[in-house]
Specification:
about 140 residues; alpha/beta; Rossmann fold; five-stranded parallel β-sheet; globular
Length: about 140
Amino acid sequence: MPSLSTYRLFISHAWEYHDDYNRLVRLLDEASFFNYANYSVPKDDEFGQMTKAELKEELRQQIRPVNCFLALGGVYMSYSDWIQFELDFAASLEKPIIGIKPWGNTNVSTAVSSVAKEVVGWNTNSIIEAIRKYSI
């Protein structure tokens, strides 16, 4: 029987594409024999009043305790300075980064594929297997 550990995850995403984020969260929520805590920024949080330095520190605080960093690998990832900051910081801490091919696509951002331990398809078993395999 699979381990029922609770995995601490950060899910990197662009707010303009939050449907993919929500779909991934639902997929993880509905997975059998899998427990996780989501350390990523929820969409309804108000960060608009923070300075860039404050927001960077907030992101660092969210990424530091995670076992694994999930990066939705849509091409839009290449155009976000914030997502690149998150990827760079996670990589600097040697957090395992798992790239996830976007729903219905085969292309993955090079920003994600260049740092990912593995890139998996949009499949519950593939994603969870990678999380279990690489989590620290």
